[in-house]
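Shipment paperwork, digital attachment
Item: protein structure file
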Amino acid sequence: MSPKNVIFKKTCKDKSVGVFMGKRDFVDRVDSVDPVDGVVLIDPEALAGRKVFVTLSCIFRYGRDDMDVIGISFRRELYLSTRQVYPPLQDREKGVHTKVQAKLLRKLGNNAYPFFFEFPDNLPCSVALQPGPHDVGKQCAVEFEIKAFSAESQDAKVRKRSTVKLMIRKVQYAPDMQGAPPSVETTKDFVMSDKPLHVKVTLDKELYYHGETIHAHVNITNNSNKNIKNVVVSVDQVATVVLYSNDSYIKCVDIEDSGDSVSAGATLQKVYKLLPLLANNRERRGIALDGKLKHEDTNLASSSIVKDGVLKEVLGIMVSYKVMVKLIIGGMMGSSEVGLEVPFTLMHPKPEAVRWRMSWCSRSSSAPT
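Attachment content:
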């Protein structure tokens, strides 16, 4: 039913309700978002006359739940939508929207009922800030959850034994079109120098995939009388928590401290290679990660792409990346710095694009030479 015929399922402790879904990743294409669909399987005897509801929620969590005693809410629902699935409010056939649902209903029988949700266009994607090695409690994160439960009514107290929860993710993939390769340059004048220092930094492209090496082309023309003692090139991740405080967390996720020097009147042209990976930053507190499901690994958070007109304040955590180039300038009164920032986008390719590339490479490698 899914590409690998995998069905995700989970049942509550009293066996009254079970949730079946064909996927747990739902793609935000900026102008549209994959709808959330699945099937609920009920046990009429275990229900004992109770109704069954399904909710889709988006939760922003920015602290441990047990800290709520000081009067500050560390868990906020950004979105909540509820559907009654049993007794059904419409014919089962009208509630079927996908082939996966139709196949599940045929397999599970008459006690299975479909559910369907559409995301509003102003919700963030799944993202979390990595906790430190000794942090306890739940991490700061934007999370999505499907919850099915049985109760006398939608507003009645819900028993944990009659509730089942399944985490899902809202994800974005790289756009089809590449932007122009970003380039930044600056000219620095010094008080005691007749001629300036000129620096230009260009990336080979604007969009990189996770695990792909970034090539930063650095061109330095040092016509000043100052000596450049070192060139430091890094990738910085900027995670801005826009919901409640607009705090920004800037974390270096890869760095090359080259030791390159450029004397007065000299030039330097060099390509610096950078590879930002979670594998090299697993102990770093506060680094933004793509949301993950239980027992699955993840990666550095992807760049946030926002639809025009959507208020950023409701998007929880915004993520961006930039290449930083710092020149350490020697002087009689101590060292100074000249810095440039070059923004770029870091994302996953669309799964179809990955499969196409792998298929093309396979055909190419098997072709006669």
